[in-house]
Amino acid sequence: MVTWLRWGWRTLTSMRTALLLLLLLALAAIPGSVFPQREIDPARVQDYLSKHPGVGVWLDRLGMFTVYRSPWFAAIYLLLFISLIGCVAPRTLEHARALRMPPPVAPSRLSRLPSHALISVPSLASTTVVATAADALRKRRWRVRVAPDSSWLSAERGYLRETGNLLFHSALLLLVVGVGLGKGTGAEGRVVIPVGGSFSNSLAQYDDFRSGPFFNRASLQPFSVKLDKFDVSFERKGTQRGAPRKFDAYLSVREKFGGPTRKELVQVNHPLSIGAMKVYLTSHGYAPQFTVRDKSGDIVWQDSAIFAPEGGNLLSRGAVKVPDSRPQLGFQGVFAPTGLVDPQRGLQSVFPDLDNPRVFLGAFSGDLGLDEGTPQNVFSLDTSRMTRLGIAPLRVGDSWELSNGARITFDGVVRWASFVVASDRTEGIVLAGALLAILGLLLSLFVPRRRLFLRPVESSELGIRHSADDTTNHQHFEVAGLVRSGADTLANDTAELATALRGTVVETNARAADVPDRERQEQT
Amino acid sequence: MTDEMLSLFSTYFAYAGLVVSTLAFGFFIASFSLSRTADTPAEQPVLVTAGAPSDVNGAESVMPSLGQPVRGQRWANIGMSLSWLQAGVLLAAVVLRGLSAHRWPLGNMYEFAIFGAFGVTAAFVIASLRTDVRWLGVLISGFVLLDVGVAVMVLFTEVAPLVPALHSYWLAIHVTAAVLSTGGFTLGSGASLAYLAVERARRRTEVGQPVRFTRWVAARVPDQRRLDAFAYRVHAFTFPLWTFAVVAGAIWAQAAWHRYWGWDPKETWSFVIWVVYAAYLHARATAGWKGARAAWISVWGFIAVLFNFFVVNILFVGLHSYSGV
Questions:
Q1: Is residue B126 within 8 angstroms of chain A, CB to CB?
Q2: Which of A21, A161, A369, A457 could pair with A80 in a Cys bridge, judged by C-beta atoms 3.0 to 4.6 Å apart?
């Protein structure tokens, strides 16, 4: 049994498994971009299901509409992270141990190593040279080990490469943990505010609110905002006519009951921070204003009705529900900011700004169904218990007298802005994880790890002749190196060492001499 | 100079880039055709590059060497000079476009494509300063030719300001990093494709199967060890840049869309690309996956890059839809 477990663990934490899991993760993420996802746009999912009833049910069962929350996707990345932890933890211990161990003993036959050079140093005793070399290398941040009798030197450098590698993988772990914690402790609520309207941060006032299991809904941070002004403009000339150009929402913010208000500007890309929460401007539209009077002239409804925009020219649809009149009245409306009546298709909008506001209303009387207890769509009427009274087009200022004596007046239009109020407590951790990962990645890819060895060599062995008038006593040293991983910089290292010893490189098989082919030997 | 004139000149430079890249492509193809292998003794170039083994079936690599002008080599040198011109011309197209629009020139598919073509060319000519990349010339100039061609003929759109959602300095940071990474990945994939060609030639020759075209290509690119090393260097440089592009996108998304990651199709495909290239780097350190398998992974990664740019921007519904035409 233990053998099986050990085999299983070893397989799970092997490079090959990690590689296969990575490829599987990439493949598994793809369907989420092809099929509509519930967490992004549930309406599109419904649409897809109604268009593909048979296949759709099976896709739903397989989790194709909730790919990133599905168990099989989670299984892949959980296995990947277990594999990562299982590999990184022992390697961290190994690396910590290696950092404390001295470099290995210099091999006796340095000429066998891939990068080999001969340095000639004038006049110093060989033990002094070894000591000088050790100092020079230590200054350049090499870890040096000198033989007890100073007969050789061994140096290693580039431990930062493995440190970077471990940092990268640990940072990924930190990032994923941060994301998970953030989702658990975070919250996001949407609210639509018409110009002139206000909003207080309480659960009841949100149009939509989602929060993680550890978020305390009961103690939302207290603040209130009022939308004083909302400047919106669109491109009027050229091929991009109608494209949005400006959305500036001016809010008055009050953070304490009875406290002072401050004026703030919220734009897309520039959210407003209020304590731990942030207020983002996300969308905009129109809310036509109506007054409804009953047959005795009393006002039974007077407000702006939020209409939902469609398309680039913001043709909007909505409903006005008047529960306080007897009988109850309801109006289904289509609003165009720049209206044009098409004989076949009815009211169209030809420009997104308020150049020619027009609304078409369909009036109904009867039972709105608001007492049923089931929630209703704000933008549409349930006309199953209502009778239709007629349709009329209205301009700003127009009134429409209905057959039962009630009257509706189209008073004007205000804009509305929609905001998202979000709380994310771990974004700092996630950002730190991401930045540390990039740092670790750079270190792990660009810091070369290599070893350098130095041994004195008897000049007589070499058969090197010096010219007759060269009377300095030259000592010769073999320098050889090994690239453990990364780029081959041994030629540079050798040349630097030679310079530090005031010597010259007599011969070398290092590849720096080749021009223009300067590609180094890659050993992972 | 008015904005309209600047925009017009930018478009002229883009067309010029198309012409130059076509010429460069022609010269690189010519240099390939005019090189000779060991089969024709007439113009056998002498190998000087240290340690380069013969690669395919005894035919020595015809990698042009120092100081040995050979017909093929001259054409390739002209192609290289044209590539430098191409970089300059495309840079001019990008800069003039930015000046005429009074913003960073990365706001729509046309601008992405032109900037991308510049990025690929720049990566190519900068790499040429460190090592001999003339063998990549055909693929790179061919790619740029197609890219600029599609840009000016299909993707072109007049200069216009950006929608408010794109009013952020992150546009310059995030999109530039993404576009430059694409240039790096193009270079790396070119090397991987060359590697796979050599591999195919080698395998089929071993079993005696017919392999004329691949062998012809294999004789004109460096040996597998150098191709693999080159591909690795390029990917090792580009992968952190792509990581940074994705992270920068997430930081921007947090400011603009109130969440740093939402599995928007573009975000998803950027993730897929990242994971595939991470797999490539892993594969080069895994027994049994080095060499051809790793090269294939990098090619799939590049296919994902192309998909992310052309298909996801245009066909997939998501928050990145204004990066469409």
A1: no
A2: A21
